[in-house]
Model the fold of this input.
Amino acid sequence: MTNNKRNIPHYSDQGQYPDSYYAASRNPKPDRPTLKQDINCETCIVGGGYSGLSTALHLTETDHDVVLLEGAQIGWGASGRNGGQIVNGLNASLQKIKKSYGDSTADFVGQLVTRGNKIIRRFIADYNIQCDLKEKNIFAAFNTSQMNDLIDTHELWESHGMHEREILDKQGIQQYVNTDAYIGGMIDHSGGHIHPLNLALGEAAAIEKNGGTIYENTLVVDIEYSDTGAKVITEFGTVTCQKIVLCGNAYLNKVIPKLTDRIMPVSTQIIATEPLGELADELIPSDVCVEDMRYILDYYRLSADKRMLFGGGSVYGGQDPADIKAKIRPNMIKIFPQLRDVQVDYAWSGNFALSFSRVPQMGQLHDRVLFAHGYSGHGVTGSHLFGQILADAINGKTKEFDTFAKVPWIPFPGGRSLRVPYSVMGSWWYALKDKTGL
Ligand SMILES: Cc1cc2nc3c(=O)[nH]c(=O)nc-3n(C[C@H](O)[C@H](O)[C@H](O)COP(=O)(O)OP(=O)(O)OC[C@H]3O[C@@H](n4cnc5c(N)ncnc54)[C@H](O)[C@@H]3O)c2cc1C
Done:
């Protein structure tokens, strides 16, 4: 159903959270109003995921007058559905950034890659956010080629002064994860994991505590801007402001046609088993989170109540697979055969925004309209970092924003109509490489 001039579709689920473990175990939240009037503020932020929340929270910390508009509920998008893995860095490795964009961009990114993690931890501490924070993350290798990549990555990170990572051989990784599947890996002692929806809800509460205003179930259908001002148009009201920040990421749809073609929605799925009791401690005695090094990867961890949360799979274009449990369960059993007979209590899917280069994008459509998106499946830390950089830019500290805004974005081959089949074909090649260890 639509009722606006661009035919922006309403949320098919009326903005309800998906039937996820996170929604079932979320902290209480207020029912926030829908915007039904014309209001004013300094900065209006579109999107209540981490990008929008981090921008808004940083801005309210400097007494900025902020209104955040969310089409569904806070954390309804990727930020409330994800694997919860706090991974330092971006999806694109520093090696790849160096190769594609040169030494100075890689050095710039190298200095920033741990900051998102620190921002999350500061928000949790400063605002007492209850989101089950646990320590450390592991990158796991199935073959020598992946192991060599990790060794190169380790060296490069060391060269940027980051010494919290350690290479693990087969025995070393088995002390952390009780599976025979990997030949080794790399642990990041400064990584971690969280209940992602509760982090988002805590950040929203902090914004309001600092004086910011949040509207939920408020679908933005258009924006207007000129040298004298800007306006965000929602279904039932408007916000007149100095600056607009667009953080709709994979769910922004075609509200801003100029942004739509820069990224492609990709869905990924997670299942949550029943609570595993002591078996959980046998499987992941260290309680770290894990992702493997394949192109289409598995990622998993234990929840606070000791369920296995196991994610993986990718659907280019962002559709949900027909049977998520049937798709993801076999991957889990390959890693942990001990879970063959356990019950799966929840299964859900979410969309992240893929950029062709896998480097996230930040920029402006106009002096008054900034945006950030495209973390390519690794955005828990990146979105928090970008939120801080966006807030700094709005407060006049534009150096980091300007540097990122200059990074050119590369269009998907085949344009809008062919990017999905071309990406599927590309992923076959990478899957073959992963299988053969090339
Ligand atoms: C299943 C899954 C697992 C993942 N696992 C990890 C992981 O373990 N570690 C990691 O680093 N990254 C992971 N990611 C990626 C990470 O979650 C995202 O990069 C990050 O959350 C992006 O945050 P965001 O705020 O930019 O976008 P989102 O969280 O998607 O938020 C965008 C919000 O904008 C709102 N919106 C869109 N259009 C409009 C509009 N017109 N009007 C009003 N509101 C609008 C949406 O409703 C949505 O709530 C995962 C992603 C998924 C989907």
About this structure: The first helix runs from residue 21 to 24.
